[in-house]
Amino acid sequence: MQSQQEYIARFPNIVKEMTYLEQKVRIISFLEMIFELGKDERSIKFEKVASHCQIEQTDVELLVMKAMSLELVKGTIDEVNQVVHIDWCQPRYLSKNHLQILSNKMHNWEDKLDQVIRLVENNSQELITS
């Protein structure tokens, strides 16, 4: 955005709302990052959020709180350990890339479910006799 300042300056309405627009872009970036992570990988260090969203580490908590207040994500913030734990993320739209990610997640879930079924089947005799 810094490289486009001269061009943006020609549009006073955009300049007036620049802080809001930057915040919105960063929230969308945060949501994209969460969406790409697996369910078991949703404990995210402040450092990673800051790097991905191009903000200072001290601004991560404010960004996450804003996303939570808009009900875009649900989770907790661990300020002491500098970690955000995300339980749920509001889906915004589904591009082909998003659909591929969902497909991969479904296949992984199916594989895990098969493993559990095999484990129960293999140990069912022990469960019945005990």
Q: What is the CA-CA span between the terminal residues?
A: 66 Å
Q: Which stretches are poorly predicted, pLDDT < 50 over at least 5 residues?
A: none
Class from secondary-structure proportions:
alpha+beta
H-E order: HHHEHHEEH
What is the rounded Rg? 21 Å
What is the CATH C-level name of the largest domain?
Mainly Alpha
Strand content: 5-15%
User: Describe the biggest sheet?
Assistant: 3 strands, antiparallel
Q: Identify the CATH homologous superfamily of the largest domain.
A: Winged helix-like DNA-binding domain superfamily/Winged helix DNA-binding domain
Overall domain count: 2
State the helical fraction.
55-70%
CATH structural fold name of the largest domain? Arc Repressor Mutant, subunit A
Number of strands: 3
Mean pLDDT: 87
* CATH architecture classification name of the largest domain: Orthogonal Bundle
The rough form would be described as elongated
Instruction: Name the strands of the widest sheet in spatial order.
Output: 1-3-2
Please explain how this structure is put together:
The chain is of the alpha+beta class. It folds into 2 domains: 2-90, Winged helix-like DNA-binding domain superfamily/Winged helix DNA-binding domain (Arc Repressor Mutant, subunit A), CATH 1.10.10; 93-130. 62% of the residues lie in helices and 12% in strands. Strands 1-3-2 form a 3-stranded antiparallel β-sheet. The longest helix is centred in the last third of the chain and has 34 residues, at 96-129. The mean pLDDT is 87.
